[in-house]
Design brief:
Length: 435
């Protein structure tokens, strides 16, 4: 930062041009170490100092702010650039479109795309791919396919990256037949699929029973083209075979990891643990979890959630409490699903004090209760004849204007409210009699 300031001071005093590679390198370093605010102050100092940055300098700041998802600063730089009379280059347009697409600001990305076309600036591969993402995520696959056709007309190189975007987008829009058609076009256009292509296809087809033979065809294509699977491929296959209830094939995939020199990662263990849990083999799920910890792989919140279910099923409350402590220790952001598992498990175990503590803890962390949270607590208190605690939960719901939509939750709320009103009427009666 001191070096960047020195360069800026040299410019202001000695009129040294700040639009230099040295200055840009220092700005880039600020972004690389996450000093966003310092970069913004430096940018403002340049503008206030009367400096007229060139397109490259603007792009360094734009790229840095967008990389850190700071769209307020990005838009300011963009507007400053246009006010200064600079015409954004293709690279700058692509940077903006790609940044907004990543942030899911699809409308903003489309506005910039239209500006780019109006100014007759030819989009590059980055801009086109960003717009593919925009339209696919907006569930407008037909516009995305028109973008793909325009790429061909503009002679944009049809790489495996472009095809991967198209295939993934179509699968995400449930357009399986079109995705397979695009995959087969790769062969006719002599574009060699990469391992990512096959992983996208296998994962996208995973839960479509009618496309089972296609997965076999894709695996055969991998063998023919001598593309070895990676950890994503093998993990996806584990998920596939668990979904089919084919434990023998799960075992074969697990045994193939050493053959390919692949080490399981957190996603692999997640697939294995959740699969074993759903199959009801809680002891095996526990062994997989212990193996994961022995390999020094930190579980994510989803795996911790699965293991809560496993340990509750095994009546192992000591490990339940340990997982709860681990999440706090590792500063992992707990989800509503995590707390619902904790609360549900404690309610079923009859430990209402712990369930209540988890309920208050989640609210303290701004993890907001949902239909399942309230339903579990109300049902537990009602079954335990604890009307006071049930009434407090109902009042919490009223205080935050929570609207029950679940039919069973509605019935529970009506039941608790009716009992509460009856008790109030009885209390009012005896109070009146005592007077």
């Amino acid at each position: 930062m001191d070096s960047a300031r020195t360069i800026l001071q040299n410019y202001l005093v000695e009129r040294v041009n700040p639009n230099s590679p040295q200055f840009s390198a220092h700005v880039s370093r600020l972004f690389n170490v996450g000093k966003i605010q310092q970069a913004y102050v430096l940018y403002n100092n340049i503008i206030c100092g009367g400096v007229n940055p060139n397109e490259h300098t603007y792009n360094v700041f734009l790229s840095g702010f967008l990389a850190h998802d700071n769209y307020t600063y990005s838009v300011q730089v963009w507007n400053d650039m246009k006010k200064k009379g600079h015409k954004p280059t293709s690279i700058i347009y692509s940077t903006m479109i790609n940044g907004f697409a990543r942030k899911k600001k699809y409308h903003d990305a489309e506005i910039i795309w239209e500006q780019m076309k109006r100014e007759n600036i030819k989009p590059d591969s980055i801009a086109y791919c960003a717009m593919l993402d925009v339209y696919f995520r907006a569930k407008d696959y037909q516009k995305a396919l028109r973008i793909f056709e325009k790429m061909r007309q503009d002679n944009i190189p049809m790489t495996e990256i472009v095809f991967n975007r198209i295939i993934n987008g179509l699968l995400w829009n449930n357009r399986v037949d079109e995705a397979i058609s695009i995959y087969r076009q790769m062969h006719t256009m002599n574009v060699r699929p990469c391992i990512s292509t096959f992983n996208i296809l296998i994962r996208g087809l995973l839960y479509y029973k009618k496309y089972e033979t296609l997965i076999t065809e894709i695996l055969n294509d991998m063998r023919i083209q001598k593309i070895a699977p990676d950890v994503v491929t093998l993990t996806t296959l584990i998920e596939r075979y668990f979904a089919k209830g084919d434990l023998e094939s799960v075992g074969r995939v697990i045994n193939s990891f050493p053959t390919y020199g692949i080490k399981p990662n957190v996603a692999t263990y997640g697939a294995l643990i959740s699969g074993l849990m759903l199959m009801g083999d809680y002891a095996a799920a526990k062994l997989a979890y212990e193996e994961m910890l022995s390999a020094n792989i930190l579980p994510n919140i989803q795996i911790y959630g699965c293991m809560l279910n496993v340990f509750f099923k095994l009546n192992d409350l000591q490990n339940v409490n340990q997982i709860h402590r681990n999440v706090k220790r590792d500063e992992i952001r707990p989800t509503i699903a995590f707390y619902n598992i904790l609360i549900g498990g404690y309610v079923r175990a009859g430990n209402f004090l712990q369930a209540k503590n988890c309920y208050h803890e989640m609210k303290h962390l701004n993890v907001y209760p949902n239909q399942n949270t309230y339903k579990t607590l109300l049902m537990g208190y009602v079954n335990n004849n604890d009307l006071d605690s049930a009434t407090k939960i109902l009042q919490d719901m009223w205080n935050v204007n929570f609207e029950p939509t679940d039919l069973n939750l509605k019935r529970l709320c009506q039941m608790v409210e009716k009992k509460w009103q009856n008790i109030r009427r009885i209390n009012d009666y005896f109070e009146m009699k005592s007077k």
